[in-house]
Amino acid sequence: MPYKPVHIAGTRRETGQALGKLARPLMSAYLEQNATWHALRPWRGHAYLQELAGHVQEALPEIWEEFEGLAEGLRMPADDLLLWHCRGDLLHKSADGCTSVALQSSGGKRWIAHNEDGDPYLYGRCHVVDVRPAGAPGYVSFYYPGSLPGHTFGASRAGVVQTINNLRIRARRAGVPRMFLARAVLDCTSLDQAADLLAHMPRAGGFHHTLGAAGDDRLLSVEATPGACSVETVARRYGHANHAIHQGTQDVPQLITESSRARQNRIDTLVDTWNEQSGEAELVGALHDCEGPLPILRRAPDDPDEENTLATAVFELDDDHVTLRIYDRKPKATQEIVVA
């Protein structure tokens, strides 16, 4: 599908409402067939959810206002929507996958690319949104129906790029749920601000963030878990699947699926072949790699993690601009967006 951006603007609450209205026709059927939603049911009404909500309200009040608007637009009880947003903070195993790669290329260009892996039901049913909230830079992001943008792939109009990989952390700690933190990154205006936000905010769950920014030579790999935050600078090339691999976080209790292990091993092999002349074609080729029984490009109806690749994103960064190109399991981009 072409992923033509849906344009949304207004106050924080209004942008949330518009995102909710966009997802409303699909949301009920989507959740009803989703195994993670059913696994969350025992957490309904749990006091811990209100504790997590309190952390968001205190630390990120603007994002909370967007969330309330999202619930209104969906016509969904806010407590149920909060439960859905905390799925990765509550469950050790949630069906969100993904593979990310990063490359420092010749000529001052930097690349971040990403396979967005999720519920196969959503293939062809997601959107790309171009959101302009009042008082914020605005952002372009892949949008799962009924989830605040940010936990997939996106970039702010200030030029900050973020891609997210699920980490299945076995620990829980009261703090800001990971999806709210990922959304907050898209309000950041610099790479340092984004990294500081992730490092110093109390975290309830675990995500891997690949970060970059126009006009900043660095690419960052951040593993943010409830008990630790590790930031590494990408020297030349990098790949990451769905488990913590940094020296500072690899000992955090986590669930490593066979797919994540296989994809990490394969992406490590592929990125080791890249050189200073490598660029977008090599990144897309790696993310569309189909070798082995548990490949990087995930299309199998019997995928063991119940995930399929929904879209592939490539961000090209230079001193002044961020350009996003989106691929639909094919070697030619279906959409190009100049974000910043």
UniProtKB/TrEMBL annotation:
Matches recorded under InterPro entries: C45_proenzyme-like (IPR047794), Peptidase_C45 (IPR047801), Peptidase_C45_hydrolase (IPR005079)
Domain Peptidase C45 hydrolase, residue spans: 108-326
Stored PANTHER family: BETA-ALANYL-DOPAMINE_CARCININE HYDROLASE (PTHR34180:SF1), PEPTIDASE C45 (PTHR34180)
Protein name according to UniProt: Peptidase C45
Lineage: superkingdom: Bacteria
